[in-house]
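Colleagues,

Please find the record for the two-part complex below.
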Amino acid sequence: MERAAPATCPACIPLPDWARSVGDSARVEAPLRRYEFALPGVHCAACMTTVEDALASLQGVAAARVNLTMKRVTLSAADIPGMEAVLIERLAAVGYAAQPLDSATLAATRVDAAGRDLLARIAVAGFAAMNVMLLSVSVWAGASDATRDLLHWVSALIAVPAVAFAGVPFFTSALSALRVRRLNMDVPISLAMILALAVSLAETMEGGEAAWFDAALTLAFFLLIGRYLDHRTRAAARSAAAELAALEVPMARRIGAQGVVETVALDAVRMGDMLAVAPGARIPVDGEVTIGHSELDTALLTGETRPAAVGPGSDVRAGTLNLSGALVMRATGVGEDTLLKQIMRLVDTAETARNRYTSLADAAARIYAPLVHVLALGALLAWGITTGDWRLAVNIAAAVLIITCPCALGLAVPAVLAAASGRLFRAGVLLKDGVALERLAAVDTVVFDKTGTLTLGDLRLAKPDALQGDARIVARGLAQASQHPLARALAAGLSGPIATLDDPQEVAGFGIEAQWQGQHVRLGRAEWVGAKPGEATATWLAIGKMPPIEIAFEDSPRPEVPAMLEALKARGLDLHLLSGDGAVPVANLAGQLGLTQWQAGATPAEKVDYLAALAAQGRKVLMVGDGLNDTAALAAAHVSISPANAADASRTSADMIIIGNDLGRIALAFDIAVQARRRILENFTIAAVYNLVSVPLALAGLATPLLAALAMSSSSIIVSANAMRLGWRK
Amino acid sequence: MTVLLILIPVSLGLGLLGLAAFFWSLKAAQYDDPEGQAQRILSDRYDDEPR
């Protein structure tokens, strides 16, 4: 690393490498664009410099900067096609897995305007509360007569504008609730603040003894902190999830009238359009193949691991991956008719069914808000009628409202959720919504998808030692000459000597053939080499006139899965396997992992039904899945988790996303959820106890501003401290 | 007690100064990457683009 010359001012230090490259790349002709990547792995100062240096050393990169809090890197680089892939590769080379983020959606969330607004209000409320509190201390210490009035007037001068500014979030929320004739937590809060100010102002004008200016301000201060924590929890996770979700740009390659291929948006594709689909691309819309042979990987859509062969006349579904040959297809299903759209409709119905969940905070507010109003009104009437002193009665009613005001309650949930989501974020789990954490804590059943979730989603040779002798060296030779996924898996799974082949030729959609020691050798689909296809995912090898040999593949489970399943079992959870794949591979995997409850061949709708049946038994189901065929199930489950490499639609409907793709975090997330729920309930208990003690005092007319200040601050601090215990353990 | 007439404005003025400083730091985007700023001090690189 470059060292600064000693005894120079910071500005005299030679420019760092990356800054110099700014000058260089300014000469690059391509216009600069902003790129952003999520980097779950960065955690230290050295990581930041490594990443920044690695990116800056690339041609065309002007500047790069890591944001450690958000765990992402922002860079401006030449806007040329393929740049993103180069950047990802470079980041992978220095050891950081990167997930590109969509800059268009990012623009909206980059400057966190709402967060800054809340921070500004907190600052004003805190400043005003401190100063008024100082003045109040003199009043409590015994200031009297003109001095007290002066102190009260100064307090009023600070408090009224401060509350008017700091209380806006509560006032607007309360108003919008009242407009639809409902009560939320903000109605008693706003009422307490306004009433406290009004009563205090009246008392100040009369030269009275008690003023609640400090109470109104501390109330605003503490509740705004709760509001800000709440905002942070939501904003951080939700924006990350939304940005990940917006990745897949729906494009199709249309063959125009003169045979010119143009790239068009998916919306522009009409029925009957001819589309070109290159090997390795996804089928953009439902349609029919007109030219070409290939195999399709439908794992994302159906969960099936075995590639499906297609040729002229075959129906193909949008979202499936073209493996081997170039295809020309005619669009037949566009817009509302595609299988994708049908899945989306399933998702919509599932989501509306789930929105009935009431969060703990809402449940508390529903009991709390009416109770507070009834108590305050009761105190007003009782004192007013019995004593006839309505000024005293209004004072006591205001005291009741201030004392009962849910300061601790407003912090109880957001503080816990902020601590919990912070811990999850550090562990690589993105939480889209705090309520999901509460739901996760109630889970008693976990349903897993197979392909891509429990398994790696790429095929491996099932029995490498079964192939021996000539077959082994020929298979290796043929496999090495092909780009087909199965052939590549075969080549990777075999070692040892390799046959020298003459004239190898790939036949798209069928396999590869060549000449070997005067014999014709073929590796490919069963029908092509003259065999009968079996149940398992397999390729076939034929040497001359000898009977074809089956080479079977399996999708191996992720390495962390057995330990994760054990951990979940130890927590008393019921585990299910629900897959769209064939019965044989599903049964194999279930046996291998010791899962007794499994179902194979499930369509997206059947998956939803399976979950509905479990829900009807009163089960709370956690769905873990990644495919498009899981999307509806993810939305229908009580709560759901997706790995970050899942289909975009799945990530959108899942409640949580595991960024590092380490499913072991599921057990951790469950533990944190259970702890968080316990802390929330503890905090509610603390708040309730505080109210049980202070409300009778207020009703009896014994509450003083000093008592209110002490009780409010201490209960808020206890509640936040209790919440923060969750974040300590790393 | 006339000293209050001087001391109260002085204390309020000092408080307002702090408030103004906070608003400035908020505008200068000093709360966008608190963790990164804390770590960058450990690197021997001069950070000429602090934000």
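The helical segments of chain B are 3-27, 34-40.

Comments are welcome before we finalize the supplementary table.
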